[in-house]
Amino acid sequence: MNIFKFSILPGWLLCLVVFFTACSRKDSTPITVTSLSSFQDKINNGLLLNSFERNGEDFVFNFEKGQLQVSEKEIKNIVPILDQWKTLITFIDNSQITVPSKGNALDFIVENILLNPTGYNPLAAKVNVALPTFGRIKVTVLGKNNASGNITHLCKETSAKQTVPVLGLYPDYNNTIELAYTDLEGNERGKTQIKIKTTALPSSFPEQFLVKSFPNKMEPGVNLVNYNGESEIDLSVPYMVDNNGDVRWALLLKTSPELNKLAASVGFKRTKNGTFIAGDQNANRIVELDMFGTLIRQWDILKLGYIFHHEISEAQNGNFLINVTKTTAKLTNGAPRINDIIIEFDPQNSSVVKEWDLTNMVDSSRLFPPDSGTPSQFGQSPTNWAHNNSVGEMGNDILATMRYQGVFCYTRAGKLRWIISPHKKWSALLQPYLLTPIDENGNIITDNNVLQGDASANHFDWAWGPHTPVVINENHILVFDNGYNRNWKSNWSTSGNNYSRVVEYKINEVNKTVQQVWSYGKSRGESCFSPAMSGVQYLPQTKNVLFCPGMNVQMTKGKGGRIVEINPITNEVVFDLELTSTSGYGFHRTQRMNLYPDTI
Length: 600
Hints:
Blueprint: E1 3-6, H1 11-23, H2 36-44, E2 49-55, E3 58-63, E4 67-71, E5 75-81, E6 86-91, E7 96-100, E8 110-115, E9 124-130, E10 136-141, E11 151-154, E12 161-167, E13 174-182, E14 188-197, E15 207-213, E16 222-227, E17 237-241, E18 247-250, E19 269-270, E20 276-280, E21 285-289, E22 295-300, E23 306-314, E24 320-326, E25 341-346, E26 351-357, E27 388-394, E28 397-402, E29 406-410, E30 416-420, E31 436-438, H3 448-452, E32 467-473, E33 476-481, E34 501-508, E35 513-520, E36 535-539, E37 544-548, E38 553-554, E39 559-567, E40 572-580, E41 590-593
Parallel strand pairs: 31-35
Antiparallel strand pairs: 1-2, 2-3, 3-4, 5-6, 6-7, 8-9, 9-12, 10-11, 10-13, 13-14, 15-40, 16-17, 16-41, 17-18, 19-20, 20-21, 21-22, 23-24, 24-25, 25-26, 27-28, 28-29, 29-30, 32-33, 33-34, 34-35, 36-37, 37-39, 38-39, 39-40
């Protein structure tokens, strides 16, 4: 049996071989072409022809998956056009079929490159490609200096003509982007490169100073920095920095007719659908955007009687949990009250499905009037008695923080479960919900000064002006302890002994106890002290912790915010990045995430 194998041969040589075969046939019986539908099935399944060979009186076509064996009597001509990744097969009845085939260079697939397609994201582009057949594109923006700066994403789209999102471009740089063409499972078929030149970011953009970075010890991803501009009601400028401290994504919404006054406060949160949601303190609305800054949906909550304050997060059921002020809420004396309502909002029906009034759970008369050292906008008052600043879920319950009252958990029915807070001034009705601190050995702390918050123990302290409670597991949480007026002493105008912490608490709801398991930040002093804003994040892949003091933090030069990643087992700092701005606002919150959402 003679076998002739045809891999990637020049078209003229292959034509000669096949033409010779066709001319030497002696059988003049009419031939019926039966293989056309089999070829079409392979094409419909998005399979490339890798090679073909002659085996006796048949041709064997080797596809990425499977073979086709076709009588040489059916085929008149085979012409590989490898620079276009296709093979033209002419049958004996002169019918033809073009079969997508493994070829050479892929430069021809790029039809168009559009940098900053919306006008709001100068570090993003869309690339239109025409592929030989169905498949996916794996995008890699190559790092400036080494592979640690590479940003790679395998896109979901599988059609032959598609628009590829390119995210993670460097500003003011001639970026190199690799486009790898893969099969539906992500196996690479070939690749090409393109160049995209970007412009510089505005001169007013925050500055980044990398203190240290050990990428091999860090949680993968970039850092979403929710920079709130010169104030909480200024235009927000969310951006992302990588593990080298380079900005790789930014939304500059000043020219957006719909979002040019977006004051996103806590900032952008990624949804399960891959979009961003944010509250707008200026317009009292909720907005949903894509990665390019396109406004997808918006909801006016002022029409429903609410003013947005601080945080929005997506619940497990897809609804939004939002900190708000109710426009009609009053104290018992008729005075207005603010920042003490949490709502659950159904985005599909644009309706509030649940409202929790914190005055029904916590005593609104528990007040600690600030001294003259605390700026009035940050001091407690009868109107702003709670200052609810964070909300999330703990299992089926709601977990939240109030700057002036502590960390608390309650059921969806509005029943209080527990409170982590200094025991001072709580009413008899609420005392049963106060968790009692225990030391590192599990012994109850009985020192009344510690219980009341007048002093801190060696291995336990309360969270002062807390933010961002984060669930690690069913009984462990992380909290950002701002150190706001720690031990009831104003610390806004003083320096030297101030500090903020990330603290891990272990909660025993049966015994009504709380134990400080781990903390970080005290030894950093003023270099990590943020009396307001800020956040923490548990990083599940490495089990590291992100500690992010965001306001008026003392930097190497100036003030701003700091992003610190810590291994809590060794206390090693594996990432430390300073972000400075003229206002001293570094960010409201920061979160580690993949640059690309999983949905695109």
